Amino acid sequence: MDREEKKRRGETTQAGIALRLKLLTIGAAIIGALFFSISGVSIIRDGSLFENNGISDIPVLMLLGITAVFCYAALWQFWKVCCAIGNDNSFSMENYVAFRIMSWLFAILGIIWLLSIAIYFFSTESADNMILFKMFEYTFVWFAVGGLTGALARLVDKARRIREENDLTI
């Protein structure tokens, strides 16, 4: 079935799916920029939450910046996957590698957050339970997303191998 027939029947093309995914990626980048900038400004303006617990704003801002860099690196990898989907090359080695990179980025980010929790817990006399809860919550999210992108990487790799075997059979 060609592209024109799919359009006539109302089916979504690979290019259409890729466009939607790219728009979602741009939306996530914009929301992330708002989140990271508003969070940074709030920390600088009203640092009393952390100062009351004996923490300087600098380590918190560094963690926020590191998190932003890792998230945008993962978004860039996802953008590359969207481009491959638009070129009708969903199950490729490039997409497998991109998903593996995303998986490692989020796993490393989870480890960084675990280390931050340990540093926070052992460097303050009285750790705020709400701050610890939020930090564990974010840590869980990073590991969960890392696990999901790792599973997607394996799925893409398996589909790629099956496609290659079928291409060789034909």
Describe the protein's topology.
Blueprint: H1 3-9, H2 14-45, H3 48-51, H4 57-86, H5 93-123, H6 129-169
Helix pairs in contact: 2-4, 4-5, 5-6
Provide the descriptors you would attach to this structure in a database record.
170 residues, mainly alpha
Characterization of this structure:
This protein is mainly α and 170 residues long. It has one domain. Helix content is 85%, strand content 0%. The chain has 6 helices and no strands. Helix 2 runs antiparallel to helix 4 and helix 4 packs antiparallel against helix 5. The protein is elongated, with a radius of gyration of 21 Å. The two termini are 19 Å apart. The model has no long low-confidence stretch (mean pLDDT 89).
In this structure, how is the largest beta sheet organized? none
Question: What is the rounded distance between the termini?
Answer: 19 Å
Structural class: mainly alpha
Average pLDDT over all residues: 89
Helix content: over 70%
- What is the general shape? elongated
